[in-house]
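quick one if you have a minute, typing this from the bus. theres a chain ive been looking at and ive put its sequence and its fold in token form underneath. please have a look and point out which stretches look like helix strand or loop to you. anything you notice is useful, everything is just below.

***
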Amino acid sequence: MPTEGVVDALKKMHSVLRPGGVMLDSRPEPSPVAVTLKTATASTQVGMLACTSGFTHAITRAADALSLVVNDGLFHGVVSVDYSMLIYIDSFEEWQQFMKKWSSYYLPLDEVVTGLIRDQLEAGDTQLVLDTSVSTTRYTCSA
């Protein structure tokens, strides 16, 4: 969605919130995601999921739109928190479904790493852990 479309959506949110009402902006950060294989006794990072340019542009447009409505006085930021969100994957099928669902966000890993992930998950007693970065900001609606 173009920045103007996001700004329009934020203006509509402002119009339905009472002064002092709260809007939360929570979104993944467009940064590489650590991919780790974890067993009961060890963890091994096997790769990094890189973000697509489309994902990076979408997050940038959203941030630009928020800056515009804050600069216009519609909202003001109160609290921002950055945190990691761990995603646990238990099977290779689940990993394939994740990558299909999020293909517009993340570039695929190379065949060697994908083969290693498949072999380890199919052997059992192994989880794949993705360490993603998330940013959440609480905005208060201005009068």
